[in-house]
């Protein structure tokens, strides 16, 4: 009898604690340990292109202390956000600091990046190789042509306990937090309930607060695909629904068009944009260098591009130069009428290789630990008198 009484008392106490916890804090795991949004997960580097902070194989997490995991550049590989000697830190209010590290990119300074009350990253990270990395299209007011940002369900500590800043649709109206929910006057408002703005006229029904619909991802042009890109499904002439692996259109491509010939030895912005497009094809331009100089590697990449699209071949005038026919194909890609044909098979093979390498590394780590343990035992035995 006594044991049954103690068991019931324990269950009741646990239930009370759970209820109190939900009533007082209403803090969900995602608000304190956040993940990256499945759509809004790309940042744009002026030198190396798109950087994915939401890969399936190495998810990035956000906590009050900082960022963990790896971001992925299709041209420069993995970027470690929590390196051994440094990490990307967080002051619990969304002001980031510290450095990320990539073998190909070197150190990247995150002190210019912040996360707001809605979980949206903004500002720039900077690196010697990457140049400026923009985390939000609002940085350059380019959202109308290229809607990209990095977003998380983590929330700053100061707004986490408020109904309008906790990342939860508390009043079940389909709108979450300030400013999306019109019932919220600020991110620290603790009531999401819409307040009526007054009754309607005779027979017209009651008036209510204006409901702000959730944002829709739109673009007037299709995406530029890369080796990690899926497909875009058109629902009408001006709207596309992107798969979670799609990239938004690059800010540098918006409104740009190739109009002049390019050849070995030339320099300038047109050459730089040519290299940026060619770098989206690893099989054509594996070096992926964005220098603005039309050198031998760029010339070789142009030759491969021309062969791929049956534009020109060896022995034909214009082979290795950007002439009228090559410009037509490049502009088709820019306009979205020709999506880059990077193979999803190559992506699958790449992911498979990564997983195999991880397994090999894990096995080697285990073997190394065993060897170190054996070495320690022998040293201890030799140290005994």
Description:
It is a single chain. It is flat, with a radius of gyration of 27 Å. The chain has seven helices and 15 strands. Mean pLDDT is 74; it is low at 5-29, 196-252 and 337-347. 28% of the residues lie in helices and 18% in strands. Among the domains are: 33-152; 256-335, Orthogonal Bundle (Muramoyl-pentapeptide Carboxypeptidase, domain 1); 344-385. Strand 1 (34-45) and strand 2 form a beta hairpin. The longest helix is centred in the C-terminal third of the chain and has 40 residues, at 344-383. It is of the alpha+beta class. Strands 1, 2, 3, 4, 5, 6, 7, 8, 9, 10, 11, 12 and 13 form a 13-stranded antiparallel β-sheet that branches.
- How many beta strands in the DSSP annotation? 15
> What's the shape?
flat
Low-confidence stretches: 5-29, 196-252, 337-347
Number of helices, counting only DSSP H or I runs of 4 residues or more: 7
Structural class: alpha+beta
Major β-sheet annotation: 13 strands, antiparallel
The whole-number mean of residue pLDDT values reads: 74
Order of helices and strands: HHEEEEEEEEEEEEEHEEHHHH
Helix content: 25-40%
- Percent range for β-strand residues: 15-25%
Rg value: 27 Å
Distance from N terminus to C terminus (CA atoms, Å) equals 61 Å
